[in-house]
Every structure is written in C-alpha cells, then in structure tokens.
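Subject: Protein record for review, amino acid sequence with backbone structure tokens
Category: Structural biology, sequence-to-fold work with a learned token vocabulary.
Format: Residues in single-letter code; tokens as whole numbers, each standing for a residue.
Body of memo: The sequence and its backbone structure tokens, given next.
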Amino acid sequence: MKDRKKIDRRGFLKSAGAAVVAGGLAGAAPGCSRPGREERERAAGPGPGSEPESPEIHGSCDPWIEVDLKAIEFNVGQIGRKAGGRPIMAVLKCNAYGHGLAGVAKFLEGVPVHSFAVGKLSEAVALRRAGIRLPVLNLGPFAAADAETIVRHDISQSVYTDAVLALDERAAAMKRRASVHVKIDTGLGRVGVPHEAALAYLRNVAGLAHVRVDGVFQSFNEEAEIDALQLARFLAVTEAARIEGLPVGLRHAAASTAIFRYGEEYFLDAVRPGIAIYGHYPTEEEHRLKRMTLRPALSLKTRAAYVKDLKPGDGLSYFRKFVAEKPERVVTAALGYSDGVPHTLGGRASALVRGKKFPFIADVTASHSYLLATGHDDVSTGDEITLVGRQGEAELPLYDLAQAAGVSDYKILIGLSPSLRRVFL
C-alpha cells in the first residue's frame, strides 16, 4: 500500500475540483469557527440573567440570539418614567417576545418590576420552576383540571367564567387561597366578563372563601374614541365595586400602545407593557413619532456555513430560484424559516457580514438562507452573519426586516424558535 500523500487544505479543494471558497485559510479552523473568547465568556453560565443549563447541545454553526439586558433595563426605566412611577407588570408571553422567558424574568426581578404576566399556564409554571418569586399572572384560559397546578405554584389566574369555582374548591382542599385577576370585557370582544355583568360577577367571586381578588383588568381596542369609552365603562364597574366594599385589587389596562398614546388617567394602578420592554414600538404610528426613546435588545446571528462561486447558468436552491447570469459568489447562511426567519427575504432584505450588507437571494429554506457576496473575496466559511442587530458600525433594525417581509415586529419576534440559543449580555 502506497504512503498517502499529505494534501493541505488549499490542495484538497483544488483536487476535489470544487468551486468552493476555503473557510478561514489564514490559520483558522475549517468550517464554522468556534465562538471567540468574548462570546464564550458571555455564553458561560450561570451569570445573572443566564438561562438554566439546557440539555440541548448547540453546535458552533447553529444560529443564536443575543439579548442586551442593559437595553431592557433602559426601556423599563423609560416606561416607568412615562407611567409616573406606577408599578410595572412586565408581559413575558410568547417566550418573552422571543427573547427567552426565564432569562429575561430573572433579570427583571432585579430591576425591579412589580410582577409578570404570561399568555399560557405552561409559561407561568416554567417561571416558577426557574425560581421566579414575583407575582405571575396567567392571562390565558384554564380548565378545572388545571386548578391544582395553579394553586400549588401560587399563580394568579385571569378569571371571567364559572371556572373560578374550581379554583375555590381546589384551594379549599389544599388549605390555600387562590389568587385571581378578574378580566372585564369593555369592548374588545375577545374574552372577559361583559362590563354590564361585571359587578355581579365580582360580587360572586368576592364571596368565595378560598379565592382572593388581587386585580381587575381589561384590554383596549387601540382606537382612541373606543378606548375612551372602554375606560369609562371600566371605571364605572370598579367604582361601583368600591362603593359596595368589594375588593378589586390592582386595576390595570394600559399595554404598550396606551402607555405611549395616553396620559395618566389611563394608567390606573399599574401598567402592563409588552413589546416596548424589548425596545420595539407597538404600532407604525409610534415607530414614526418615537414619543419615547427605546433601545432594541435582540440581535439575531448565525455563521456562514458555505461559500462558493457560481458560473453563469448555475442555479441555486429549489426550482433554481436564483440563476447566475455572470460569475457570482454566494454565502449559504445557517439560518432558515424553521428558526423563525420569513421565507420571502430574497431580493427584499440584507444581512451583515464583516460589517457590510449582503442581499438575500432565492427563498429562505427550512435551515438555510443565501446571500450574494460577489466582489467580496475576504468572506469565509465561519464568518459571523447578523440578520438583526449591529455589526461594527453597521446596523440592521428588526423593523427593517419586518417591513421587508411585510409583517409586524410582533410576528418576527414571536416567531423566533424557542430552540435557538439565547445569550444574555
């Protein structure tokens, strides 16, 4: 058997006849490079705000999210000043708007905020299991079978039907008291006790021996004229309850839009911001007016999985969505619609590589997306790619990505896969 001849990396690629650009030929490891020292330190737990250790193993090429906790702290301060120092019930629904439920909650406990609100019982339980001690309100529905879980984990539950009786029964059996916030429908029409029947409902709930009313709340329609009517209806119910001596606890109604748009009469006893905490404006109008300065907290990043040169006539992706008319260089990014990236970015958006904008071409596929890098000979496999956030002096706001995809900031954030690694800075 002949001795094998040693072939260096450049020779290997040449011998393979591949029109592939070698990754990191200047001494770096081939393929996706490992995170640098600074990234390793930032990702190392269990520092303040870090997620609990995950059983998942994240590869060096896997996309990830970075969350700037100082930006979140700044935004909470801005909201607090606008709300006149009222307590803040921070909304953490949908995995903290994609930022990472437990990591954000742990940080906010020390900011501090008054309490948390989530959209599902599973989120509320996850917070308790992560060690969160502040009050947690489940805004979502529940069934009688969930009553024991709610009481055992000391979760405040939104109530507006006779399901509250199950909480009373289980709390009695457990020798505990169940905490509830009564949801009143003043005009949004989604869920809640109709405002005409709300006083009688409050009267009935107050009569339950093992249920404590810790709050009464509503959600605005977000049309100014209707919102004013809703507020009047809500105040009429709560004032009538107080005259009767019925407990109402904390009255809250103002989410992010109302905090931006209205004055203190809408803020009641506490405010309930969601998307503004994370540095994004709730409506097109507020993005344009910027009546409050916010700092986006989230960056979405990945690495170049492959760099190759196309010849004229070469096709790219399914159904040859992109066909080279001249020699082109293409970067395949390890980020796809399974991660929450809109699939329609080809020809509409760009990503940052080495501080420069590279346009998306073809459709985003399940685990990959494609960037045009013609004229950039320095691009290598393993290079960091930023889809949202800052790279050097350049920045790509989430708003720009949402506009390119024809969706709202909400849909991008909430659609980000929970399996993406969150790195809390």
